[in-house]
Design goal:
Malonyl-Coenzyme A Acyl Carrier Protein, domain 2; Alpha-Beta Plaits; 4-stranded antiparallel beta sheet; 13% strand
């Protein structure tokens, strides 16, 4: 992941090197070489995805220059919100990667203290899923797009929610490979540690508004940013609502920087009135240039 960026883009290579310096170890080596089991640990996976996403953006800026469209706002899904804050000028790369690694450590630790899991529910209305979660003791963690919602909680509660949902006509319940019940009350043990880390981080006013996960509205100030980062730890990520808010702001083109095309797909399933592009590799950048 990201090796082609490191090898072919000076800007991307500088991102990886700065992250390694900030953390005091070679995160880049783990990203490029693994082992996969170590990379998948939340404490490592979060800063890895964060850094590759920033490297994608740096490589695209280096190669495309002024042909990149001027953004109206920034947004990111869960961990991606931290990437968006770097893109929007609120936090530095070095501060960001240290903060994200601490977030990953705290969330992994919380998941070990209070084991939980997450399941994607497809094709059911939000109101029905909310009722199922109330009865089962689970929570709605992500509202991703029409027809795709993720629930979070202790495994017995998720199992009960799945059974209740199936009894109410739900057809597709897809367990996710995660190390905890993210974006739910099960992450509360991480709250104080994350608050301490966020309070110690220099956060500036955004140069571009951030469409926040929890409120699905635009924020710009340091206090708003701190509140949002703490709220989304155990709060629902309202991604679909955020996309709809951006459409209301006049956004018509969405560019996803980072590995994979998950967010691009969620935008497409939310609206047909926008164009999308994913930049996750040098090949994507070359295709854009051509």
């Amino acid at each position: 992941m990201g090796l082609d960026l490191f090898q072919e883009s000076t800007a991307a290579r500088e991102v990886f090197e700065e992250a390694d310096d900030a953390l005091g170890f070679l995160l880049s080596k783990l990203i490029f070489e693994g082992p996969a089991d170590t990379l998948k640990q939340t404490v490592n996976a979060q800063p890895a995805v964060f850094i590759v996403s920033i490297a994608c953006m740096g490589a695209a800026r280096e190669a495309l220059g002024r042909s990149l469209p001027s953004p109206l706002c920034v947004a990111g899904h869960s961990l991606g919100e931290y990437t968006a804050l770097v893109a929007g000028g609120a936090i530095s790369l070095a501060e960001g990667v240290r903060l994200v690694r601490e977030r990953g450590r705290l969330m992994q630790e919380a998941g070990e203290k209070q084991p939980g899991t997450m399941t994607a529910v497809l094709g059911m209305d939000l109101e029905v899923i909310e009722a199922v979660c109330r009865e089962a003791g689970a929570e709605v963690a992500n509202i991703n797009c029409p027809g795709q919602i993720v629930i979070s909680g202790a495994k017995p509660d998720i199992d009960k929610a799945t059974q209740l949902g199936q009894a109410m006509g739900g057809k597709r319940f897809m367990p996710l490979e995660v190390s905890g019940a993210f974006h739910s009350r099960w992450m509360k043990p991480a709250y104080e540690g994350l608050k301490k880390a966020i309070d110690s981080c220099e956060i500036r006013s955004l140069e571009l508004p951030l469409v926040a996960n929890v409120s699905a509205s635009a924020i710009t100030g340091p206090d708003e940013i701190r509140s949002e980062l703490l709220a989304q730890l155990s709060g629902c990520v309202r991604w679909q609502n955020g996309i709809e808010h951006m459409l209301g702001l006049g956004v018509s083109d969405f560019i996803e920087f980072g590995p994979g095309q998950v967010l691009t797909g969620l935008v497409k399933r939310t609206t047909r009135d926008a164009t999308t592009r994913n930049v996750g590799s040098q090949a994507d950048i070359k295709n854009w240039k051509s």
